[in-house]
Amino acid sequence: MSDVLDKIIAGKFYKINAGFFLLFFILFFGILNGKETIDLHHAFMSAISSSFHYTIIAMVIWALYNFKCISFTIKEINKEENSFLFNLQALGNWGQYYLLLKCQAALFAPLLLYAFITVVVGLREHHYLLPAIFMIYQALMCGIAAIIYFNQLNSTWKKPAVHIPSFELFHKKSFSFYLLHYSLYSRKGTFAGIKFFSLLLLQIMVLANREKVSKEAVCVLITFLISAHSLLPMYYVQFMEQGLTFSRNLPIPVMKRFSVYALTYAVIFLPELLFLFFNERDIMPVQLILSLYAVAISQMALYTSFQYIKGMNTERYTTFVFVIFFATLLLLASSSPWFVFVAEGVVAVGVFRLRYWRYAVEKE
Amino acid sequence: MMIQFKDYKKNYGNTLILEFPVMELEHNIYWLKGENGSGKTTLIKSIAGLVPFEGEISVEGFHIKKHRIQYRNIVNYAEAEPLYPGFLTGSDLARFYAKVKSADAGQVTSLIKAFGISDYIANKTGTYSSGMAKKLSLALGFMGRPKLILLDEPLITLDQHSVEALKNTIVECYRAGVSFIITSHQEIDFTGFSPSRLLVQDKKIVQL
Question: How many other C-beta atoms are found inside a 10 Å radius of the C-beta of residue B123?
Fold first, then answer.
């Protein structure tokens, strides 16, 4: 059973998030040279082991990653094709906990490894309390996740321990806002996680670089934040094409269909727009803030249009996201964000118009 | 000519599902028969505009690829196993269909009444049984001013009362000039006349 869990949960998690991990790997290990990278991470680890504030920040990041693991696993457990997993109930409580804990450890492995090295660094530098707290925190993260999975697997006969409420934007739901309703109803965990992560990073940027924030730094961060949202277009196209299959039979013009996506992205990035507007207005002109907001919308629209390309699968999509990330960085460095907005928007509209009616759902 | 097919061909990957050079169908009720996997649903989905294909399909002179909006205004579709987003209510969907298919309030009300869905239409579709979702899907499939309605396995999961309501609605619409293509493994009998039979066989459509 452990092999099966590894394949359908841990293996799939790494496959789907290959782009995400690659991006993080390059950001944290690929930019500086070898010695500088080691020094940087040693400084991070020392800070986590010696400063309560840094330990808290690390814990928040660890919790966010755990949230990502948990929401992914719950989705997988509840998939129709994985309904056979409910047979695990026959193993008894401890048997199930053991398997699920192993599975969680596999999902959590990158951060567990980093935490382990952090604790070793802390102990070598004669810090004991914070490394111990950090180590216990790792065990708690894995243990809580295993309990959540256990409750999910046994939901066929047990009442759920926690119920996350759904949000209702409007009582009467317009087609233009279906994707927003979908985000707040069916993808509320992913959606909330992405938004929290995004705003947290912006907050960290403001706190850390209050005096010396530059346009370049903000552009890099915004491009990174847009990439962090790249999971949403994938879910949205899946929803529109598999959850609303009937809509293809309805007389809705192709640009109206495109506008549903664009409008959704415009609303989704409003928190970031407001954040920049209220926190960075002194350093960044309003026009720059608005142009970066426009880039976010057009780039998400571009991700959406790419979903309609024949033969698109998760791996190819993550490669596209990766390529667009660097292409946007280069474009932002060499030209105005308005130009990037127009360029990406034109490609997005073109690909969408060309591909929409030729698209057919393909199984990965 | 009501429905015309020209050089129609549908593959899934390298597997040919259906292929026929020309076919023309007059105004009628057609019962599309065939074994499991013969391509009935694929054909229905092609006519509904749900899946891409090679060739051309036109209804009342409107081409599926050239006149996308006009075509979809006159071709309605109700799927075999309807699945709706759980956060939408039946009323949300009815309003949505009524708007895009230009159905008037009177028609919406009468369809809701005819299919007996008024008791639960205000509830979220996530709470519906398969039979309830099916009745909603059928009611939505009749909205607007269609010239052709495609019903994929309309009788499955329906109770006897709803089957009768469906048959009455079909006959009423047929008399008003609406054609139907219906796939069903169950016998379809209408009081007063029998539907024309089409058989999907050897990747082709045969008119019986």
Answer: 13
**Contact between chains at B77 and A246 (C-beta distance less than 8 A):** yes
Q: Are residues A265 and A359 in the same domain?
A: yes
Calpha distance B80→B155 (Å, rounded) = 9
Nearest CA among B71, B113, B75, B80 for reference residue B94:
B113
Shared-domain flag, residues A254 and A202: yes
Chain B residue numbers with beta carbons less than 8 Å from the beta carbon of A168 are 87
ipTM: 0.75
Residues A158 and B34: their CA atoms lie apart, in Å, by 44
Out of B48, B83, B92, name the one closest to residue A173 (CB): B92
Contact A181 B65 (CB under 8 A): no
Do the beta carbons of residue A71 and residue A189 sit within 8 Å? yes
Taking the whole predicted model, whether its pTM rises above 0.80 is answered as no
Q: Are A11 and A83 contacting, i.e. CB atoms less than 8 angstroms apart?
A: no
Is residue A93 situated within a structural domain? yes
Q: Which of A91, A121, A153 is the last residue in one of the domains? A: A153
Q: What is the pLDDT along chain A (364 residues), one digit of tens a residue?
A: 677 888 889 998 998 888 778 878 887 887 777 788 888 899 999 999 988 778 877 887 888 788 788 878 988 888 877 877 877 877 778 888 999 999 999 999 999 999 999 999 999 999 998 899 999 999 998 998 999 898 888 876 655 555 566 666 667 778 889 999 999 888 787 788 788 878 887 887 777 666 666 777 778 788 888 888 888 999 999 999 988 888 999 999 999 999 999 999 999 999 999 998 888 777 788 898 999 999 999 999 999 999 999 888 776 787 888 889 889 988 988 889 999 999 999 999 999 999 998 888 765 4
Give chain B positions within 8 Å (CB) of A184: 87
Residue A164: inside a domain: no
Helix (H, G, I), strand (E, B) or coil at B63: strand
Q: Which of B77, B24, B27, B4 is nearest to B195 (CA)?
A: B27
Assess whether A51 and A130 both reside in one domain: yes
User: Which residues in A lie closer than 8 A to residue B99 (C-beta atoms)?
Assistant: 175
Residue A162 domain-assigned (yes or no):
no
Residue given tokens 């998939």 in the structure block:
A79
Same domain, A145 and A200: no
Q: With respect to residue A88, please indicate whether it lies within any of the assigned structural domains.
A: yes
Q: How many CB atoms neighbour CB A96 within 10 A?
A: 19
For A:248-287, CB contacts with B below 8 A are 248-254
B50·A172 Cβ contact <8 A: no
Burial of A273 (0-12, 13-18, 19+ CB in 10 A): middle
Please enumerate in sequence order all residues whose Cβ is within 8 A of that of B56, keeping only pairs 6 or more positions apart, or say none. Answer: B4, B5, B6, B7, B8, B63, B64, B65
